[in-house]
């Protein structure tokens, strides 16, 4: 084994050196004894021994591992050179750190959201069971995974054969407070086998079993996450048995989960988990458990080891008809019902968890990663240019080394060692930067009501990615300059004297030009992309959703603790609304059951007979004054009024899209349609009394959907929840505190919370904001880098051509001609780069197409804007060296020769 | 790798042969480098002229292989010197190399003087 020797090679060298000395001494002594003079004796001894340095070298060579030894030498030499050029090193490391950091940060998010498997037992066996059909069906939805109803879930659980265990789950938000301002906990509804199937043991106490999750269970308690345990209970061991209230319902803590467990949803974490069976008790009238049209659950199973996905698919589709038949909501009719019964259940891999974040951000993150990659590429081109400049400054030194017998490979290795040091420095700093950047990104995408949680611990894929980046960048910006530098003919380089004059061959300039052209091209692509995303966001922000966004508050209240009987709820809400309308600063207020962007509900619209199904419509229940509060223009007919009561004719106000879809446009006032209400209530005839302008319902990006507005006053089952839209031109904070005081006077037991409508709408555009912000940042960065590159190359060209310019001026060229000549050269580079960039941008734009709103990826105006912008900046940057050239004093320039 | 300007053949000893001679010399008792060089020279009645310097890399190699061990001691002239002695595995190695050498010499002799054998 060579290693022990390798590490002790210096010790052995000293030992051998002493030993050789000892030999010389002994031999000299003997020679003197033989009668030589001391000087002759020493000389003879040396002759006898041979060259001691060579002997030591031979031994050292044998001890060392040559490759390691020389690499170490190269690295030390490289470090020394970098220390001598601190400005260059700093710029290089900083730009690499930024580039590598940005790439790593985005990759880290992608890795966490997309690549990793759940931190549970055998995650690859986990399989989600959903419909073979995207989207929700008529009825009520709650949570982010509106896949199954409870009835359907129970049927699947009882009839499937593919899974050794199954569980259903759903997400929810619980209020922890008892009156006053609301404090939220992120909740999970779980079936009894949840923890058991996932293989998550309790950290403390116990987790649920099937025995906890039975129909009509009393209070089986709550399992809390480790982070909630720390936050809420300070990590106290005595937490088991402590009480919490969830939406006012008291529960007891029975266990804590390990800190690595965040549920099955990547991108979020949970605070409390509650069994499905207590849902009716907690949610009261809003309960989904018994509703066959309540879509709120998602089911995951653990595939049996001897089952394949295909076999599971076959079994699930075989049992599907019976399951859908037996769980169809009673009010589904006609074609709707037929379609429902034809659905099939389909298993899909769920080993890396479920994630709306993944669905929504997969494409943006990949796109951002490629954008950041391009920025890194541009930065590499800049560094390559700098390295080329340095190499030509060191031309003479390298020529001397080559002439003295250094091998080309060794010299290349030495030059690369320098780059490797820079790249590693950049990567190490970049890794540090990435940790902060990725956390920043997560914070950017989090909102108050929907905090994101992404496990950003470093893992092997991330480290491997960063290492690969370091190596690739090193090769990119280091290899070509190193190859070029060592290709010099020693003789010509040494003859050339100060490295000035005509030595620079066309070819070497060609490479620098090529680098600048590609920089310009790439940065044009990024600028176009940035402008596309910024303009797309602008389109969305300035889009008119059909209702007023600014100065509107959403006040939500929970009256559960007041214990009002159903018949007193409507009067109570009306009184509350009247009270609020009198508060100074409140311009208008109205009651609503669903808020824009939050909840949604839809129903089937029918004609005369039960089989006369016409289609689906979105719906909402509102009080009089709703259209006034949101400033939605009433086009025809009337608003709801106090005479629309439970006993009078059922009325509806519809929007234009509704009128067009069901009545072929025109004035629908006075026409009737039939619509299902709650399950079991059957279809009821509604007379249209008003027509309003279109509004968006769930999302800014959607087309205006048909909406039917129904009066809350005709709702037979008013819930204990209140949602008010409150419009005001006064500062909203002042209005909020006035509202709080006023509501607290009514009762301190009302749970209340406020949102600003505009903020909520903006928060629905987070993805667009992320794309616009980051691509904008990268686009500007790329343009700056390319401009610096162009400036550098032009300056270099001018410096190299001092003689030539001097001669031209001496021969009578005036300053303007010189200025024009240099600018012309810069313009050619710029034009070629812009042309190539435009082609690239058109090709690359397609990738971004699906992320743009009301904008084509090959939007000519955007392309023109980006081109003009980049050209202006780049010409301005090359004006400086051109001017320097025109100010040249021909005499001094010529004398330098 | 052959070096340029290599000394004439008679000055070079077969790689391995020197190792064997060193081991043989040390089988008589511990010795330091100076002594070993002279012992080989004299033992061969000055036929084999060792370049004394080349002995040291050989010693280093043998020690690294564990066939000889070294220690600092005091020479007969009261000087510090690095002494070498044969290790048990070195002794085995000497026996093995000697018998292989004998075989080699017999084989070569059979070719060079076929008539005179036996």
Features:
heterodimer; A: alpha+beta; 10-stranded mixed beta sheet; B: 118 residues; alpha+beta; 4 helices; 51% helix
Structure overview:
Chain A is an alpha+beta fold and 897 residues long. Chain A is built from 28 helices and 24 strands. In chain A, strands 1, 3, 5, 6, 7, 8, 9, 10, 12 and 13 form a ten-stranded mixed beta sheet that branches. A six-stranded mixed beta barrel of chain A has the order 16-17-22-19-21-20. Chain A has a five-stranded mixed beta sheet with strand order 4-24-14-23-15. In chain A, a hairpin with a 2-residue loop joins β8 and β9. In chain A, α2 crosses α3, α6 packs antiparallel against α16 and α15 packs antiparallel against α16. Chain A is globular. Chain A starts with a helix and ends with a helix. A three-stranded antiparallel beta sheet of chain B has the order 1-3-2. Chain B is 51% helix and 14% strand. Chain B is an alpha+beta fold. Chain B starts with 16 loop residues before the first helix and ends in a 6-residue tail after the last helix. The N terminus of chain B is likely disordered. Chain B has four helices and three strands.
Reconstruct the topology from this structure.
The complex is a heterodimer of chains A (897) and B (118).
Chain A: H1 3-7, H2 9-33, H3 38-49, H4 52-63, H5 66-84, H6 86-115, E1 126-131, E2 139-141, H7 150-159, E3 163-175, E4 180-181, E5 184-190, H8 194-198, E6 204-205, E7 222-224, H9 226-233, E8 243-246, E9 249-256, E10 272-275, H10 279-283, E11 294-295, E12 298-303, H11 309-327, H12 334-341, E13 345-349, H13 356-393, H14 395-403, H15 408-445, H16 460-485, H17 490-495, H18 506-541, E14 552-558, H19 566-581, E15 588-592, E16 601-606, E17 613-622, H20 626-629, E18 634-637, E19 651-655, H21 656-663, E20 672-676, E21 683-692, E22 707-711, E23 721-727, H22 732-746, E24 751-756, H23 757-763, H24 766-800, H25 802-810, H26 815-848, H27 860-886, H28 890-895
Parallel strand pairs in A: 2-11, 4-24, 5-10, 7-9, 17-22, 19-21
Antiparallel strand pairs in A: 1-12, 1-13, 2-16, 3-5, 3-12, 6-9, 7-10, 8-9, 14-23, 14-24, 15-23, 16-17, 16-20, 18-21, 19-22, 20-21
Chain B: H1 17-26, E1 31-32, H2 33-43, H3 52-65, E2 68-74, E3 80-86, H4 88-112
Antiparallel strand pairs in B: 1-3, 2-3
